Amino acid sequence: MTRTLTVLLLALAACAWPSSALAGRDQEMILQDDPKVVHAGSDAELKETLERIKALGTDRLRVTVFWHLLAPGARRERRPDFGERGASDPRSYHQEAWRRYDRIVYFADKLDLELMFTVSGPGPAWADKTRRGRAGIVRPDAGAFRDFVEAVGQRYSGEWPVDPTKEPPATPLPGSSSASPPAKRLPRVDHWSVWNEPNFPGWLMPQWRGRRPVSPHLYRGLVDAAWDGLVESGHSDDTVLLGETARFARSRRLPLPGSLVDTLRFVRELYCVSTRYRPLRGRSARARGCPANSPARRRFPADHPGLFEARGWAHHPYTIFAPPDWPGRVKTDTTLRSVNRIGRSLDRAQRAWHRLRRLPLWITEFGYQTRPDPFRGVPLSRQATWMSWSEFVAFRNPRVASFAQFLLNDDAPVPHRSRRRHAAWITWQSGLRNNAGRAKPALEEYRRPIFVSPRRPRGRRVRVFGSFRPAAPYAQVPAQIEFREAGGDWRTLRALTAGGSRGYIDARVRVPGAGRVRIAFLPPGGEQVNTRGVFVAPR
User: Fold this and answer.
1) What letter does residue 366 receive in the DSSP assignment?
2) Which of 1, 7, 145, 500 is most buried, with most CB under 10 Å away?
3) What is the mean pLDDT of each run of 10 residues along the chain (539 residues)?
C-alpha cells in the first residue's frame, strides 16, 4: 500500500508541475561573449559592447567569473596569505582584479541587462592539487573554491559599497540628457551557475580513472563548495544552475583520462545512482565518494543541498554540422532535440533519493560556426536560418527555460598557425558578426527570428514562429503574417500581437499556394519592420 501511494504521489507531482513557468513565451534569450566582455579593453569599449547586446533584445548576458583572474598569486604553487579576513572576504583580493567584473555589473545595471555569473576554473596553480603544469583544472581544491565563491557572492550581493576611487565613470546612456548618479553599492547578481563544462577535459581533469568516471565526483565537491559559498554570501534564494555540461554521447571506445564523460552518465554519477537509477552501494559507492551505508544514504540529500535545491540544469547542445532537429548519433545523445533525455535522467536521479522535483533545462551556450573556418563552418545563410529553427525547437519544449547565442563577434584564428590546419581554428566563429565587426545575416535574424513549419505541407496550413526581440518585456507589438506569391504583392493572412514577456509569435495560418511567408511588426510610433521571407510550397 505504501509503495502504491508513493508511485501515485510521484505521478501527481509530475503532472502538477507548472510548465508555463518553464518556457514557451517566457523563454529567455542568453548571449555570451567573454572575449568582448570579460576581456574588454577600456570602459568605453565594454559599455559599447553591452549597449549593442542590449539593443539586440538580449534578456540575459552570461559571464564567466574565472577563478584565476581574481585569485592572488594565480601562477604560484604556494597558497598566498589572505590575512586575518581570509579568502572568503573580497577585501583579501587585489582590488584592481575586481574591476573587470565591477564594471560589467555596473554598466549592465544601467542598461537593465540581466546577468548570469558562471563561477568557474581554471583556478590558480596553488589550488590545483597536482601542483604540476599549473593548469588550474586538475582536482581543484573544493575548499579554496568555496572561499572564492563566497567572496564573489559577497561582492555582488547588492550590499557591497563602491570604492569611489575605483568606480566606473557615470557616463550618460543613450537618450539621457545627463550622467547617471554614482552608485553607492555594486548591483546584485541573482543568477549563477557552477563551473563550465565539467564533463570536458579542457575544464576539469581527470575525467576518468580506468573505466570509472572521476569528473562527476570532483564536480559534486565543487557544487557543494559553490552552494555553501553562495548561501553564506546571501544568495540562498537566487537562481543557481548546475551542469553547464558539454553535449557528448556514449562511445564504444575505452575511455582515456582525457576523454569526455557522456552527459547522461555524468548526471547518474553525480547523483550516485546506477544505470537503473538506484543508489549505489558498497565498493562501487565508495570508489565514487558516494554513501556506502544506510545512514549515509539517508543523509545524502542533506549533505549535498546544491544537487537537490538548485533551480535548473544548464547544457550546451552544440551539433556543429547537424540541423536543429537532429536527435543525435545514439539514444544517449543530448542534442537540442533530445535534451529532454537529461530531464528524464535528472527526474529519475531525484526520485532515487525521494525527491519530487523537475529541474528546468537551460540552454546557456549554442551556436553554429561559419566560414572562414574551413573545417567546422557552415555557410552564413545557413547559420542564420538554423539559429531561428533551433530557437523554435527550444521554444516548443515546455521544459526548456532559455535559449542562447554564443558570441557576438567571431574569435580570431590562432595567430602564427597555418589557416590550412585545424590548430588555427580551435577558436569559435559562431558570432553574429565576423572578427572584423561586419554583420553576418545572423545579426538581423537574431533581432527578428522566423521559422515556418513545414516548408512543404501536405495541406495548406503552416505553423509560423517568430519574435520581435528588441521589444520591451510584455510590450504588445501589433504584427501581421503576410504572404506573397511570385511576382505578387504582400498580403495579410492574419493579424495578431507579439506578446508574452519575450515578444514571441506562434500561430498557424493557411497559405494560398506556393510563395513566401514573413512576419511584419508594427511597433507603436515606428516604421514597419519585417522578417525575411520563407518559401513554402504546399504539396
Assistant:
1) -
2) 145
3) 40 40 76 97 96 97 98 93 95 94 97 98 90 77 98 97 62 42 82 97 93 95 98 97 91 68 96 97 94 95 97 96 93 96 97 94 97 92 97 97 97 87 90 96 97 92 95 91 95 91 92 96 90 95
**Grid coordinates belonging to 431:** 558570432
> Amino acid identity of 71?
A
Other C-beta atoms lying within 10 Å of the C-beta of residue 41: 8
Residues 6+ apart with CB under 8 A from 418: 424
Beta bridge partners of 480: 495, 520
Cell numbers for 510, please give them. 493557411
Looking at beta carbons, which pairs linking 216-221 to residues 24 or more positions away fall under 8 Å? 216/261, 216/265, 216/266, 216/269, 216/270, 216/288, 217/269, 217/288, 217/289, 218/139, 218/140, 219/195, 219/266, 219/270, 220/270, 220/289, 220/304, 220/307, 221/142, 221/289
- The dotted CATH code for 19-447 is 3.20.20.80
Which residues are CB-neighbours of 344 under 8 A, at least 6 positions away?
none
Domain ranges of the chain: 19-447, 461-536
